[in-house]
Design brief:
Number of domains: 1
Strand content: 25-35%
Helix content: 10-25%
CATH class: Alpha Beta
Shape: globular
Order of helices and strands: EEHEHEEEEEEHHEHHEEEEHEEEEH
Mean pLDDT: 95
Bound molecules: 2-oxoglutaric acid
Structural class: alpha+beta
Largest sheet: 9 strands, mixed
Radius of gyration: 19 Å
Number of helices: 8
CATH topology: Double-stranded beta-helix
Amino acid sequence: MAIEVHALGPGIAAEVRGLRLWEPLDPADVELLRRLFGEHGVLVFRRQSLSEHEYADFCALFGSLEHTVRTDWASRVRPEIGLITNLKGSNGNPLGGLGDGEVEWHSDQTYMANPATGAALYAVELPPEGGRTYWANLVAAYEALPERLKQAIDGKNAVFRYQKRLNKYKGADQKLSEEGRKRTPDVVHPLVHVHPLSGKKALYLDPTTSIGVVGMPEAEGNALLDKLASHAIQAQFVYTHNWQVGDVLLWSNGCLMHRREPFPSSDRRLMKRATLHLPADLHIIPKTFMPAEMAAQ
Ligand SMILES: O=C(O)CCC(=O)C(=O)O
């Protein structure tokens, strides 16, 4: 069956039909998918039935798989896969992370010096209601900014801190291993990047980790970041995904933020997550500075 591509969201997100991801893919189809992923930022494949190895191997076609700092969320079958779930083991301990609550608007790995900007979720068990995930298009959001705000952020960099996100988490998710702490010092990234395919500019935002703008008083910097985030999550920039069991969804964090709505704690939800280092010729890979470098300038 030939590949069909159906646009889903406002300038982002496309559904790809006609592929069985558990079968080896034709190299020409892989090239097409890599390009589509770069162009759309969100790619959806429905009605898939994958072992963890098949899922991980498919994701690895787009970039190298990362063992994230959340080793406590890692699957025992394939540790590069993280479990995003409210399920608990027979000992009562969480099997993965992020529980059943809202996951606020964020972008993954903004707190890392070398962020792995690709991510995938595979829906294995879903609640009857709730738990939808939303993606905001930060290219369209940048384009729609008033000229004076574009000028205000030109050349500006923000500081990102993982501890800010940890403070928002509940229970065991708040804890991070010593190794995880060493891998997550404060980092600085520009607020605007250029997409390598379209040449268009995109905002780079994460209200769950950003703690200020370099060279601006704290309150002023945070007010600017809040204004940018409120602008970016307006409905016209957002794609909402209504999950079905068997969905595989890939997204590129360099040009998107995402959030998940809560779902009832009495329901079960299990998503398998992969995290990927994406290639810079197809995706925005944020530049990084350490705060000390910025201070020395
Ligand atoms: O559970 C979801 O749908 C999204 C989870 C999430 O925000 C993430 O994996 O970064």
